[in-house]
Amino acid sequence: xxxxxxxxxxxxxxxxxxxxxxxxxxxxxxxxxxxxxxxxxxxxxxxxxxxxxxxxxxxxxxxxxxxxxxxxxxxxxxxxxxxxxxxxxxxxxxxxxxxxxxxxxxxxxxxxxxxxxxxxxxxxxxxxxxxxxxxxxxxxxxxxxxxxxxxxxxxxxxxxxxxxxxxxxxxxxxxxxxxxxxxxxxxxxxxxxxxxxxxxxxxxxxxxxxxxxxxxxxxxxxxxxxxxxxxxxxxxxxxxxxxxxxxxxxxxxxxxxxxxxxxxxxxxxxxxxxxxxxxxxxxxxxxxxxxxxxxxxxxxxxxxxxxxxxxxxxxxxxxxxxxxxxxxxxxxxxxxxxxxxxxxxxxxxxxxxxxxxxxxxxxxxxxxxxxxxxxxxxxxxxxxxxxxxxxxxxxxxxxxxxxxxxxxxxxxxxxxxxxxxxxxxxxxxxxxx
Length: 433
What we know:
By secondary structure, the chain is an alpha/beta fold. The protein has 15 helices and 14 strands. The protein has a seven-stranded mixed β-sheet, with helices on both faces. A five-stranded parallel β-sheet has the order 2-1-3-4-5, with helices on both faces. It has a two-stranded antiparallel sheet with strand order 11-12. Pfam families: Peripla_BP_6.
């Protein structure tokens, strides 16, 4: 029999084997030799028994009875958006570490299972399928991109796995395609960030009422996030009395925006509102200024990252972005998170969605305190975890964490940021009403 590497084999000694053979070899066995053989056999049995006990010990009795539940992460851990994705992953990791250290769920150990979606819907779908196939996975934090969420949602829903996004802002993910007749598509889906139905109008009000801008050109990348953001912005801006002088689109992988900038420039806008992410927004801003279109570029939370300023260059001064919530480093409620994240020694910053990811993971953990209490295993507790999420309510790093009937956060605080001195600086923070 071949044993796995690292396993010990208990063998009787050569002297014992030889002695036993001699004892049993003769046709006439004396009584005292039978006693000797019996004693030897008894000793050998005890030796084998002791060896077996040592092989089975492997850990403490407490470890032997501890069950495992995993919280998955689906986010871009590589590529252009990895700065945001790694902040999401690390913040979930921190929440899990703290839960285990405090024994938040007696009898259970939590583990993280992180998957890289590469900001791609197809890759994200495969990641969700992999996590759904793991019986120990009971919840997932993610995704970053709304377009990826559209592929991930049905997979996790079919497996009864709760999903909490810290960053998806497209309204249709929770309310369906008809805003006049909202219907929740997936009961397992929640989010800790506010949506574009709030973020777009918030930006429109800032440009029209605060900045005094009445003419805007819009550009988006044709993806769910960018298209939805521009739609929400445009509706509110026109309702306020503003004018959309040009509406253009680009491809998500485009790098040269010359033709679009020419069209926009001829329309004479006072600002450009962009729906998309910073890998395109940064070069767009730089190329627009280089072409003589010296107006601020404004976008949503997708461009709120230091990389935007790096890509846009010095001419990004005055560009604007909205992002969910108040600045993390100014929130009293986030102080403990910021300190713990720093102490944990992560190489990457928590970035724009770290605190929201931390709260998303803790929302799942709060639900697990209910669903795992009497559960035999993680898989059987998947649906009870979804049921428990509806009643989750606690004070998180970003403020009050709770969900409405659609799975959306009940908190609607946003911030406008402005590039000043090569950095994003908070211009105003308000609750949207």
